[in-house]
Write a structure and sequence with these properties.
4 helices; alpha+beta; globular
């Protein structure tokens, strides 16, 4: 009788573990696939979600903030000073008002981050573009949201930028 009760309890526990595994396995596989072949690693702040493919990572807040990390070929092969100046010149010529420019350091990358402020209707939007170069690869980090929302996630933007590492 005791062994029958123990067997029933073990079957219930096994069934519960199988249910948990079925729920957790897709998330685990997704996390592995999201980071598996990507040429960089980055931290996803608590409470944020992520999607992407082997070449880019998109990070979302529940209320609409979005950041993206991606890479491009360093072609023609130039240093960070060239690409940062090219980016700045292009966006300024397109009418983006530059409000901040500063160097940044992450795990194994150094670069320059630009912040732009754009009016749209009755609102203002902030747009961050950070760029770094390592060897044959340009690393680009972009973040954008309505100004108030962008400012709300200033700490998380710092976490994302400082956590990016080239593989």
């Amino acid at each position: 009788m005791i062994s029958q009760a123990a067997g029933t309890m073990m079957n219930k526990n096994t069934a519960l573990l199988m249910k948990i595994a079925k729920l957790a396995l897709p998330a685990l596989i997704g996390a592995v696939l999201l980071s598996g072949c990507r040429p960089f690693l980055a931290e996803i702040p608590d409470g944020f979600a992520a999607s992407g493919n082997h070449a880019r990572l998109i990070i979302y807040s529940p209320d609409g903030f979005k950041a993206e990390i991606k890479t491009e070929k360093n072609s023609p092969r130039k240093k960070i000073s060239f690409w940062a100046e090219a980016l700045k010149t292009q966006l300024v010529s397109e009418g983006y008002p530059l409000i901040d420019e500063r160097p940044f350091s992450s795990v194994n990358l150094d670069g320059i981050a630009f912040t732009w402020l754009m009016p749209l209707g009755n609102s203002y939007y902030k747009y961050l573009t950070a760029v770094s170069v390592k060897g044959k690869t340009i690393y680009i980090i972009e973040a954008s949201a309505e100004k108030e929302l962008f400012d709300k996630y200033e700490n998380e933007i710092g976490i994302i930028i400082s956590s990016v590492s080239a593989r």
